[in-house]
Amino acid sequence: MASLTVRNLPDEAKLRFRQVAAAHGRSMEEHLRQLVIEAAGMAPVASAVTDASVPFQSFPPERTPEARAESRARIERLIELGRGIDWEPEPRKPEPLTNFEFDPKDFE
């Protein structure tokens, strides 16, 4: 396997690349490896990494009516399940402090 060293990168470029790699859930090394492989035409280009200058958050999720209905049904099911829980927290019991040592010198 070949290796690649990139020198003289501006600090800003390295920081931005670190952020882009993290947004894709990869280390900088793994993200660069994937970009080089894709640029060489050895792997299909993922839509989220075709333009690394675009922040990862800017890709809108696909919101089809079916997807919205499915999400809504899941949320309603969770709410329904949550209403069926009959749980009360135990009342708090104040307990006296034990083995408490106070030395005013510690606060000088």
UniProtKB/TrEMBL annotation:
<dbReference type="InterPro" id="IPR010985">
    <property type="entry name" value="Ribbon_hlx_hlx"/>
</dbReference>
<dbReference type="InterPro" id="IPR053853">
    <property type="entry name" value="FitA-like_RHH"/>
</dbReference>
<dbReference type="Pfam" id="PF22513">
    <property type="entry name" value="FitA-like_RHH"/>
</dbReference>
<feature type="region of interest" description="Disordered">
    <location>
        <begin position="86"/>
        <end position="108"/>
    </location>
</feature>
<feature type="compositionally biased region" description="Basic and acidic residues">
    <location>
        <begin position="86"/>
        <end position="95"/>
    </location>
</feature>
<protein>
    <recommendedName>
        <fullName>Antitoxin FitA-like ribbon-helix-helix domain-containing protein</fullName>
    </recommendedName>
</protein>
<dbReference type="GO" id="GO:0006355">
    <property type="term" value="P:regulation of DNA-templated transcription"/>
</dbReference>
<feature type="domain" description="Antitoxin FitA-like ribbon-helix-helix">
    <location>
        <begin position="2"/>
        <end position="40"/>
    </location>
</feature>
